[in-house]
Amino acid sequence: MERCFMAANRVGKTFGVGGYETALHLTGLYPAWWEGRRFTQPIAAWAAGDTAETTRDIVQSALMGPIGELGTGLIPADAIIGEPSRRSGVTGAFDTARIRHVSGGVSLLGFKSYDQGRKKFQGTAKHLIWLDEEPPSDVYDECMLRLMTTDGLMLCTFTPLQGLTDIALRFMPASHTAPGATRPGTTRPGAEAAREGGINRMCMQATWDDVPHLTPAQKDALWDAIPEHQRDARTKGIPILGAGRVFTTPEEKITCEPFDVPRSFARIAGVDFGIDHPFAAARCAWDRDNDIWYVTGSYREKDATPPLHAAALRPWGTWVPIAWPHDGLNRDKGSGDQLAAQYRAHGINMLPEHATHERGGTGVEAGIMEMIERMQTGRFKVFRGLADWFEEYRLYHRKDGLIVKLADDLISATRYALMMRRYAEVERTEQRRLRPGGGGGGGGWMGT
């Protein structure tokens, strides 16, 4: 129901994504390959931008054509019925357009702008609302109310220049993108989509590297023209964090292709209990000979019980030691049992004590500094494809000198595992035989 294309500038957010799909739904002229929602009857829709002028110049132009060139946009000229009504006070701006639907009926398209305020978004139900550029949260909430009775669609297309706003956070974590203000290269994977568990909401991101129409020379010229603090947002679609990221090592330096982990590598996993946030687990392997730490798997889920989380972890190997934080000593309000004990009861090999540094203590900064030092020296690697882990990597930041505890569940789980690596174990032959599917060659420990 809610979809966001949080992407870089110049990648086609307006014309190729929001505008194209809006035109399809208004006309019913779907291509044969279209697998998304299809409206078989006329719809009522809104398309909106920041101001009346930007709505006219960007959104209206994409759908209807530039001023004086009606019918040259994404909506075919023969589908536009008559002359659209005009918006007062803004030259060339439309208020409402009537669009011919293939069923024989007429779709209604209204043009709005955020500067009109929330009250202008009150009114009748809509089947589709396209918000181009990030809206104020009260406007977004009002738009969602317009879609409730129709099971309508919300489309958002924007570059996150305002930082971690309520709207950006609504769709975060998003997808696997590179952290740090580094010039985009060709090693980053393509844009990926992620759906929040249990919520009909999806975010996709795209960078300059995901589109074919920007040449290297154009990218270089654009890069030089962008203020440094805006480069991640404008080239990769990463929200501006303002106070600075904790992890600044380029993603390509810590990313590695998944491989069968050798039996000689010690294994350990870390968990972060989901008391008032998602439960998370990071599966790790340690190449002791070269002192390289690998994050090979991740799991993050909210609103689930210990038995369900335990069931997700058991395939990682019931022999694998699990590091856990101090709050695992807390007792469940329902059963009265300690959290760590509940997981032990479900066959998870929880370590006998909560995570501490080898010299004692549980300091967050010490653990983060060790992760950073390993990343900078090439001794910390993460399997490509662990989108949830990389989402947190790029959002992990400080404000007023302090780490912001936001979307940090997998990072915390990884830190606990690294803190307790002295308890990591090498898989023994008898353990291998007991594993489902055990007995074959290779480590059988690919990232999932």
Give the beta-strand count: 17
Domain module count: 2
Percent of residues in beta strands? 15-25%
Which structural class fits the helix and strand makeup?
alpha/beta
* CATH 4th-level superfamily of the largest domain: P-loop containing nucleotide triphosphate hydrolases
Query: Strand sequence of the main sheet, in spatial order?
Result: 3-4-5-2-6-7-1-9-8
Protein architecture, described:
By secondary structure, the protein is of the alpha/beta class. It folds into two domains: 2-236, Rossmann fold, CATH 3.40.50.300; 251-434, Nucleotidyltransferase, domain 5. It is built from 13 helices and 17 strands. It has helices spanning 13-27, 52-64, 137-147, 166-170, 216-225, 231-236, 251-254, 306-313, 339-345, 364-376, 387-395, 409-419, 429-434; strands spanning 2-6, 44-49, 80-86, 94-100, 106-113, 128-132, 153-158, 193-195, 201-204, 255-256, 266-272, 279-287, 292-301, 322-323, 380-383, 398-399, 402-403. A nine-stranded mixed β-sheet has the order 3-4-5-2-6-7-1-9-8, sandwiched between helices. A six-stranded mixed β-sheet has the order 10-15-13-12-11-14. A hairpin with a 5-residue loop joins strand 8 and strand 9.
Can you tag this structure with a few keywords?
448 residues; alpha/beta; Rossmann fold; Nucleotidyltransferase, domain 5; six-stranded mixed β-sheet; 13 helices; 26% helix; disordered C terminus
Secondary structure blueprint with pairings:
Elements: E1 2-6, H1 13-27, E2 44-49, H2 52-64, E3 80-86, E4 94-100, E5 106-113, E6 128-132, H3 137-147, E7 153-158, H4 166-170, E8 193-195, E9 201-204, H5 216-225, H6 231-236, H7 251-254, E10 255-256, E11 266-272, E12 279-287, E13 292-301, H8 306-313, E14 322-323, H9 339-345, H10 364-376, E15 380-383, H11 387-395, E16 398-399, E17 402-403, H12 409-419, H13 429-434
Parallel strand pairs: 1-7, 1-9, 2-5, 2-6, 6-7, 10-15, 11-14, 13-15
Antiparallel strand pairs: 3-4, 4-5, 8-9, 11-12, 12-13, 16-17
